[in-house]
Amino acid sequence: MIEINNLTLNLSKSFCLDIKSLHIQDKEIFSVIGPNGAGKTTLLNILSLFENPETGRVIIFGKDILKQNDVLSYRRRISYVFSRPYLFNNTVENNVAMPLRLRGKNSESKVNEMLKLFKIEDLKHNNALKLSQGQMHRVSLARAFVSEPELVFLDEPFLSLERLYKEQLMTEIRKIIKNRGITALFVSQDQNEALCLSDRIAVMKEGKILEIGTPEQVFTSPSSKEAADFIGIETVAEGIIFKKEDNLCSVRVKSKVIQVISELNVNEEVIVLIRPQDVVVSKHKEKTSARNVFKAIIIHIESWGLEYKVRLDCGFDLLAFITKQSMKSLKLKEKDEVFISFKATAIHLIKR
Amino acid sequence: MLKKIMLFFLGLMLIAIPLIAQENKIIILATTTSVQDTGLLDVLLEKFTTETGYTVKPIAVGTGQAIKLGMNGEADILWVHSPDDEKKFVEEGYGISRTTFMHNDFVLLGPANDPAGVKTAKSITNAFKIISEKAVLFVSRGDQSGTHKKELKIWKIAERTPNKEKYVEVGQGMAATVRIADEKQAYCLADRSSYLSLKKNLSLTILFENDKNLLNLYSLIPVNTQKFSKVNEKGAKILLDFLLSAKTKEIVENFGREKYGQQLFFYDYEVKK
Amino acid sequence: MDFIFDGIKKAIELIFSLDRDILDILRVSLLVSISATAIAVLIGVPSGAIIAIKKFPLKKILISLINTGMGLPPVVIGLVISLFLFRNGPFGFLQWLYTVKGMILAQVIIALPIIIGLTVAAFQSVDKKMYLQIIALGANTSQSIIILLKEIRLSVLAAIIAGFGSIISEVGAVMMVGGNIKSQTRVLTTAIVLETNKGNFDFAIAIGLILLVMSFIVNLTLTYIQQKNRRD
Predict the structure, then answer these.
(1) Residue A62 and residue A60: Cα distance in Å, rounded?
(2) Mean pLDDT for each consecutive 10-residue tract of chain C (232 residues)?
């Protein structure tokens, strides 16, 4: 869907966007994450022709968009959601209908469908500027999808939302994008958002792309230290909650069952995040208060700053950090059999 | 809402167009403020327009400026009161003819207590001498108008120059000048008709009058079409004929009797019966 | 002091007796000021919008020229227009001098920089991203101007009010270009000058009152529209 090659743009002395190659598949949800000033928004601005790069080729819908004359009809095939919902001083209904009116094909049924999809039917006749932050974001998203775009750019659309609300909205959006077969390019500083939404992730810093891959690839085995520094390393695994007693959830990850404290509900698909520093490695099975104890095999040991990064297989891939002292006293080496444990509270679940 | 405002304005413009469109048979009459301020002009022109269908645009300025307008071909006919300038205007070929058709006179106005003591002067030149010697405040039109020219001429005959510190040149019309003199309790020269029309709001009184040098002659001069092709010769001729007719004579001789209790202008032209 | 109260008393009598001269003056005034405002708005608001939105060379210089134009002395504009409209001037063939058309022209030129300048400022006060968002929603240039206009209608109305205010209160240029001809080009402001000079204070006060009431009513209407929209 999108093919970017050798794209460069000097915005200031200290910042230069330089993307060698970035290909995004049809119907893919692709995230670009990176710190402030990484050039994420600049990238979206180039793709929506708000800014002109100095060199490069950007092929979208089978054409080099930088060389086409009909900017308007290109823009009418895409949607761009800004981090702040720029709504108009008018009713919610009229805000959502705007893109259709601009295209000269207003349709009440489409507008109503969107209002329903984003759960803002009841606000239909309210002034859009008098809504809560969350409601405004919903209006802004409904407005972006009403024109049935083939490609959607999302620039941190959840920036100012509360966590719970945000997660709910993200799940809905993922569903909508997938159901409608839309290609989406999502930009964020927040890796959890990216994990939750995307099929693939790119890590960007100082105008360059450091890393491209699936969430698992990027989070568990980043190829560059720079990328790892930004996102931090975490074990990422997919699972499903199959049992819940009080707040203690049992999550099946591959063949194992992990116990996690979470407010999510039974039967929800989740992404399990385990921070390597929370994982305890021991030679023998010991009595412990940790709810999760598994037998594991050491696959790989690698020096990681002041610590060692140990990759284990405990039924699923797991990362652990071990200090040099512990490494010495435990005399760990690859292919050793060990026990690992982590607390039920140390795990973070993200609803998918 | 914007659409409504636009429609509102468009509607108004549509109403406005026919009102603007009716300007065709136009005569530009360059005249003096004294003729306009008394209201005589309004009366005459209203009658003229109803009779002939011509629209007259009277531009009431000082005689000096009226003559300038004529010299640039920006007026069709002049109604002015500065004989020397008029003669020169015609001699130089700007005007076709000069017809002196009515007169009134100038009066010397001043504070009722007459601080300079000009009431007992033998002549107007004598009065001006006294004003210069006593160094009393004197307000001058200072605008090259007929009245201003007349004032300068009297200074010349009197062989005096006005006292610099006490001489105020206001550069305004007759009415404005008299009002300023009134506020400042100064002396000033004005035509009688302007004075009479302003009298009710004035504290100044006539301190000197009836002198041959105070005669105020009004003349009509159609502008020469040979020099300016754009001048409305026909219109000017029709207006001239109208102003030199018995009808005008009657209006002029009766003008002001009711309002001011006396005749303001004296008609001199011998109209053909 | 008496002449002030007498003046006001007489003025009210004059207004309510529907004096023909006053009605003529009022008619010409309304015709000139409203047509001039309308033309200035029709030209000024779209050009202000385009100047604010489009990128082009010398844009900053153009904007500062317009801002200078906002402070141009109307009398100078009157003088220049008179020179151009004189029979033997470059536009003499139009025969617009001493006519309502000429006065409207002068007023349009006086009000245009004000309306363009304030419109540019209003458009520039909009978040740049708002404009990008409108474009991103699929708007072409004219659609985006219309949408933005709706968003900043309050500021644009303020520009219109300011333009109308400068026109209705102007005296120098209309005096020169119009010639202050009775029933033809005499408007409220020039009539006030004339009648004050003549010492007809009652008449001057009457016209002054009408001028005040008129500009009050027009401004009240525009402000009402403005504030009503704000409440929505």
Answers:
(1) 5
(2) 77 84 90 95 94 90 93 92 90 88 95 95 90 92 90 89 92 92 90 84 87 87 77 50
ipTM: 0.76
Give percent above pLDDT 90 in chain B.
62
Instruction: Mark out the alpha helices in chain C (DSSP H runs).
Output: 2-16, 20-53, 59-69, 74-85, 100-124, 128-136, 141-151, 153-168, 172-178, 188-197, 201-231
- Listing DSSP states for A189-243 in one string gives S-HHHHHHH-SEEEEEETTEEEEEE-HHHHHH--SSHHHHHHH---EEEEEEEEE
Alpha carbon distance A126, A93 (integer Å): 8
| Closest-CA residue of chain B to C222 | B5
Closest CA to C129 of A206, A159, A45: A45
Nearest to B187 by CA among B120, B140, B122, B124: B140
State the pTM of this model: 0.76
Match 């002049």 to its residue by tokens: B78
CA dist., res. A294 & res. A338, Å (int):
9
Tell me if A75 and C135 make a contact (CB, 8 A cut-off). Answer: yes
Q: How far is CA B86 from CA A197, B193, B225, in A?
A: 95, 21, 17
Token pair belonging to A282: 């021991």
Q: What are phi and psi of C179, to 5 degrees?
A: 85, 0
DSSP state letter for A121: G
| Structure-token match 């030129």, residue found | C109
Determine the residue type at C219.
N
Query: To 10 degrees, what angle do helices B2-21 and C100-124 make?
Result: 160
Query: What letter does residue A264 receive in the DSSP assignment?
Result: P
Which tens digits make up the pLDDT trace of B90-117?
999 999 999 999 999 999 999 999 999 9
Rg of chain B's alpha carbons, rounded to an integer?
A: 21
CB A81 within 8 A of CB A153: yes
What is the DSSP secondary structure assignment for residue C94, as one 8-state letter?
Answer: G
Dump pLDDT digits (tens) for A217-263. Answer: 887 777 777 777 777 777 888 889 999 888 889 999 988 899 988 88
Please identify among residues 106-145 of chain C the ones whose CB lies closer than 8 Å to any CB of chain B: none
Size of interface B-C (CB pairs under 8 A): 86
Is residue C100 a contact partner of residue C31, using CB atoms and an 8 Å limit?
yes
Cα angle, residue A223 at apex, residues A219 and A225 outer, rounded to 5°:
85
Cβ pair C133:A48 closer than 8 A: no
- Whether A122 and A73 have beta carbons less than 8 Å apart is answered as no
Inter-chain residue contact C87 with B228, CB threshold 8 Å: yes
A78 in Cβ contact with A153 (< 8 Å): yes
